[in-house]
Write a structure and sequence with these properties.
Blueprint lengths: L5 E8 L2 E5 L2 E5 L2 E8 L5 H8 L10 E5 L5 H4 E4 L2 H10 L5 E7 L15 H11 L10 H16 L8 E5 L5 E6 L1 H6 L1 H5 L6 E3 L1
Parallel strand pairs: 1-7
Antiparallel strand pairs: 1-4, 2-3, 5-6, 5-7, 8-9, 9-10
Length: 201
């Protein structure tokens, strides 16, 4: 391609403008070179090449330093395609256009997770949960429960007392209570409406 058909651009980015007395400097940051085709030059095209070097944001401002000028009096704010064409006219075939990027306090920052750890996120979710935890039965407790159930089931029905005698302090039986266990086993009696009986002398 004919050198006259391309425009060499040097991007200055990541720094900031600082005024020191009567002068203006661009402090810090990096520089990167790009080569643009003059007949395709536009503001979106310029930002597209800038995006090869950093994340372009709407709040950024782009300035062209006119040849032979200082930063304090030679910056041209590029915000239209016409400004980009004017920049092209100022740069000869072998020249380089210096482009300065102003961030306006919106530097690129790496994205971080809320906690930096999936485990911490899960722990936070558990801590934020107000629901009461489900009851937990250990293996030992489960064995005890199962043993009690088996012990009850192992008692023959005939060995379960149908009536319980309740004596007073003198040893005299004053009350007879029908056994609820007996009645629970005799399902047929319950299905017919039979209820435990309470008798007194």
């Amino acid at each position: 391609m004919d050198p006259a058909d391309v425009l060499n651009v040097r991007f200055h980015y990541g720094g900031e403008f600082i005024r020191i007395g009567p002068s203006l400097d661009y402090v810090g940051g990096d520089t990167a070179m790009s080569v643009l085709e003059r007949d395709k030059l536009s503001l979106p095209e310029l930002k597209g090449f800038l995006a090869d070097h950093l994340t372009v944001k709407d709040s950024m401002k782009i300035y062209f330093l006119m040849p032979g000028r200082q930063l304090v009096n030679g910056l041209l704010f590029l915000h239209t395609d016409e400004g980009c064409m004017q920049m092209s006219e100022h740069i000869t075939d072998a020249g380089v256009a210096d482009i300065y990027v102003e961030y306006n306090g919106e530097q690129d920052e790496p994205e971080e997770d809320a906690s930096g750890s999936d485990f911490e996120d899960e722990l936070d979710d558990l801590m934020d949960n107000d629901d009461e935890p489900d009851a937990v039965i250990t293996a030992e407790e489960e064995d005890i429960v199962q043993g009690n159930v088996q012990a009850v089931n192992a008692v023959p029905e005939q060995d379960i007392l149908e009536h319980i005698l309740v004596p007073n302090e003198g040893g005299v039986v004053t009350e007879i209570i029908s056994s609820p266990v007996k009645h629970n086993i005799r399902v047929d009696a319950l299905s017919q409406g039979s209820l435990p009986r309470l008798s007194r002398f």
